[in-house]
Write a structure and sequence with these properties.
Distance between the termini of chain A: 25 Å
Number of helices of chain A: 4
Structural class of chain A: alpha+beta
Order of helices and strands of chain A: HEEHEEEEEEHH
Shape of chain A: globular
Oligomer: homodimer
Radius of gyration of chain A: 17 Å
Largest interface: A-B, 58 and 58 residues
Largest sheet of chain A: 4 strands, mixed
Strand order of the largest sheet of chain A: 2-1-6-5
Number of strands of chain A: 8
Helix content of chain A: 10-25%
Chain lengths: 175, 175
């Protein structure tokens, strides 16, 4: 990717973006091979700079208030193929080659649940890896889920995604 | 789409989502036919309910603090094929059949600008309609752009997108 260099030019790109009041911008990651939308995460300027410098996605975790290199724990990195921005300059679209799966729950895409008949939420994909193995099964019994959405979404997911859901604390996981 | 009904069931889906502190959730719209990512906009519960009830996307404009039906002005509506949610339940992915173009600047996708060599921002798509004709050329001379990102992103775009950029006030446009 010719975007990856350490010249001052990437700064020009960063300055062309509209960052929100927290200095962040949402980045959609799309599978460069088949067009599947894999995830959405947030970047600050440093995450964007690291992404441009390394050619692999980096993000900023709003819940953990820290930077993270996607795949640092799992090895499931995303090799950036291209970056585009929307008409308002306030959303990024990153096409990337995904190694393994994007989702910490073991799926290729984070969008593995779909709205079905009658408002039901169905799992619409098969897992591509065992998240307990990748992220460590010892964490499965940890009851703390401080950063992972609580409430009905979790409960519904827990009911539906039997055997594939990890009750991992978000603070130890990638977003 | 079997999701579209006026039963109370969609409320169950809404309650399964993680809304941000403003009661909003980002919704990625993807072309159901070719997988192209078309746009990202925000929904509140009413916008989601309207989307489910009509089968066409509705959003909430943060800048104008109002609801909008995508395509109401342009006719470029989005017919919803499916809705999925990510692992955190805080992002929606909507696959839709796009009529015309999603972008108010005349492009099929809002992501019509890409990061090129040396940090340059290039237009990477051809317009599919004349935004001045669709939204009204009389607005082209209106200098007010209160809601459209100002600053360098705009300036760079203005330099590059010759002839295709409309200086329309965002307050009169879809987001």
């Amino acid at each position: 990717m010719t975007l990856v260099n350490d010249s001052p030019e990437p700064l020009r790109f960063a300055s062309a973006l509209t960052w929100n009041e927290e200095g962040l911008i949402p980045a959609i990651v799309q599978d460069a091979e088949n067009g599947e939308v894999l995830m959405l995460a947030w970047m600050d300027e440093r995450a964007l700079r690291d992404t441009l410098a390394t050619g692999q996605t980096h993000f900023y975790s709003r819940s953990r208030r820290t930077h993270w290199h996607k795949g640092e724990t799992s090895g499931h990195v995303q090799h950036v193929e291209s970056i585009s921005l929307d008409c308002d300059g306030d959303v990024l679209l990153i096409k990337a080659r995904q190694i393994g799966g994007a989702c910490h729950e073991g799926y290729r895409s984070c969008f593995f649940r779909g709205l079905g008949d009658g408002g039901r939420i169905d799992v619409i994909a098969d897992p591509v890896f065992d998240s307990a193995l990748v992220y460590g099964s010892s964490q499965r019994t940890d009851p703390a889920t401080p950063d992972h959405g609580s409430g009905s979404a979790e409960e519904i997911t827990r009911t539906i995604v039997r055997g594939s859901r990890t009750d991992l604390p978000r603070s130890r996981l990638e977003e």
